[in-house]
């Protein structure tokens, strides 16, 4: 896929990949050999009929292809941009055995963009109203998906979002250069046209409790899709110095609060000269690439394993390197150093080696004794993962949770320990992918529909 040259894109927040034109999309679609037993569908958490939507693209029937996509996925413009197709559907493409698999993700993006730019999209028809009310807590990928499915089933759906704009991690966590916000807003607007009500600035667990939603506001069922938004820190000396951010705060300030356009927008964000980003996932890449665009002279990405163990998408790692991010592998910070004003000035690191596999299946990083070095840094971003926010659990003692704070559910239905309350996405699994959260939401929507239709 064509993209902005690195030397240009580091100076803006515009989307990096530029998308297919119709001719390129048809040519790529024509590579699909329409397997009799397509493995690619098995790799899709929401069960998109991949061969059918691609065949229609190859035939130039773009509107028909978009209709096939809508049968399983109402958020294709986002999934086509941020889902790890190389680890899911494309990994199982038979063409990938001897060459490149069909670029399923790029084609998904193309057909969604065609629908959006040509105004060809149709609002899915809803079943007759059931008279049942469902509250959806959180408007990220899981919340948007379950709301769409339930609305199509005829239920009255209200989404409660803590922030002032819906979209969850799609709007606050993923940078503009990877997922333009106009696309998220377009997808959300489709839900409104389907009759879904969205209430923002409502922090469930603080503003209102789950019990109050059901007993006082009359919701017949609740879906919890609040993600995992509580940042993890390293718990090393100096972590409270000025200039150190969690990735959540750093990206939220930049993406949702538009700090990269300060002072036009009133949210400040430290524009460090030398920035250290700790982590090896997509969030770490997003943070490092944001720091580059904010004008950093040097951006180090510090990762305690090697490149082959990095969970970030290969294309995001490649783009980060093209943009000048310097990767430091087998390195772990052990202390943040500050000046007499409490400002970060350096990061002390220890070199690592790989040991036996840990619970993740990856080699465990082991510190090398007495092998330390120091990097100059006046800003740092900690991107080592997140835990669930404890607010809902604290105000809902009957809600069974895991030892790490996630919600315990039935894997097939998403049902929690409270009748009528379901959950899905990162609040259940911990940090995962957008499409996995959507898959869990689709299963939960089906279970909620069955529950509501059986309810007296």
List the helices and strands and how they pair.
Elements: H1 6-9, H2 22-29, H3 39-42, H4 50-58, H5 62-72, H6 76-82, H7 104-117, E1 133-137, H8 141-152, E2 156-160, H9 169-172, H10 181-193, E3 197-199, H11 210-215, E4 221-224, E5 230-231, E6 244-246, H12 247-255, E7 274-278, H13 282-293, E8 298-303, H14 314-322, E9 326-329, E10 331-338, E11 344-357, E12 363-376, E13 379-382, E14 386-387, H15 391-394, E15 421-423, H16 426-429, H17 434-454
Parallel strand pairs: 1-2, 1-4, 2-3, 4-15, 6-13, 7-8, 7-13, 8-9
Antiparallel strand pairs: 5-14, 10-11, 11-12
Helix pairs in contact: 2-4, 2-7, 4-5, 5-7, 6-7, 8-17, 12-13
Summarize this, please?
This protein is an alpha/beta fold and 456 residues long. The protein is 33% helix and 18% strand.
Structure description:
With 456 residues, the chain is an alpha/beta fold. The protein has 3 domains: 6-117, Fumarate Reductase Iron-sulfur Protein, Chain B, domain 2, CATH 1.10.1060; 133-229 and 386-454, FAD/NAD(P)-binding domain (3-Layer(bba) Sandwich); 233-382, FAD/NAD(P)-binding domain. 33% of the residues lie in helices and 18% in strands. The chain contains 17 helices and 15 strands. The strands form 4 sheets. A 5-stranded parallel sheet has the order 3-2-1-4-15. A 5-stranded parallel sheet has the order 6-13-7-8-9. It has a 3-stranded antiparallel sheet with strand order 10-11-12, with no helix packed on it. α2 (22-29) packs antiparallel against α7 and α8 (141-152) packs parallel to α17. It is globular and about 65 Å long. The model has no long low-confidence stretch (mean pLDDT 94).
């Amino acid at each position: 896929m064509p993209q902005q040259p690195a030397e240009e894109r580091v100076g803006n927040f515009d989307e990096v990949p530029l998308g297919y034109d119709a001719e390129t999309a048809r040519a790529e679609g024509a590579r699909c050999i329409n397997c009799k037993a397509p493995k690619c569908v098995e790799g899709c958490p929401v069960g998109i009929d991949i061969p059918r939507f691609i065949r229609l693209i190859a035939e130039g029937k773009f509107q028909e292809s978009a209709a096939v996509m809508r049968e399983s996925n109402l958020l294709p413009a986002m999934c086509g941009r941020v889902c790890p197709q190389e680890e899911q559907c494309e990994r199982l493409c038979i063409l990938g055995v001897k060459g490149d698999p069909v670029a399923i993700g790029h084609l998904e993006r193309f057909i969604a963009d065609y629908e959006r730019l040509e105004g060809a999209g149709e609002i899915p028809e809803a079943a007759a109203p059931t008279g049942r009310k469902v509250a959806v807590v959180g408007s990220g990928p899981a919340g948007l998906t379950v709301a769409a499915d339930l609305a199509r089933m005829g239920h009255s759906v209200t989404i409660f979002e803590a922030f002032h704009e819906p979209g969850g991690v799609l709007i606050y966590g993923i940078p503009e250069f990877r997922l333009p916000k106009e696309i998220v807003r377009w997808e959300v607007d489709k839900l409104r046209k389907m009759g879904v009500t969205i209430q923002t600035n409502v922090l469930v667990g603080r503003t209102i409790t789950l019990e109050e939603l059901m007993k006082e506001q009359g919701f017949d069922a609740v879906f919890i899709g609040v993600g995992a938004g509580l940042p993890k820190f390293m718990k090393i000396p100096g972590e409270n110095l000025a200039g150190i951010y969690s990735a959540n705060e750093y990206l939220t300030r930049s993406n949702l609060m538009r700090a990269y356009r300060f002072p036009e927008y009133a949210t400040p964000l430290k524009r460090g000269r030398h920035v250290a980003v700790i982590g090896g996932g997509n969030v770490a890449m997003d943070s490092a690439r944001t720091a580059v665009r904010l004008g950093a002279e040097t951006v180090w990405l510090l990762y305690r394993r090697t490149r082959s163990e990095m969970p970030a998408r290969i294309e995001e790692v490649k783009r980060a390197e093209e943009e000048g991010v310097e990767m430091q592998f087998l390195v772990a910070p052990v202390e943040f150093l500050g000046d007499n004003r409490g400002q970060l000035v350096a990061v002390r690191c220890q070199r690592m080696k790989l040991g036996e596999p840990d619970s993740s299946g990856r080699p465990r990083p082991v510190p090398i004794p007495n092998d330390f070095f120091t990097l100059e840094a006046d800003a740092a971003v900690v991107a080592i993962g997140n835990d669930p926010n404890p607010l809902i659990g604290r105000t809902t003692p009957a809600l069974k949770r895991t030892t790490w704070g996630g919600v315990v559910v039935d894997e097939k239905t998403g049902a929690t320990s409270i009748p009528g309350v379901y959950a899905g996405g990162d609040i259940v699994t911990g940090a995962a992918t957008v499409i996995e959260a959507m898959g869990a939401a689709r299963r939960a929507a089906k279970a909620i529909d069955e529950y509501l239709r059986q309810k007296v």
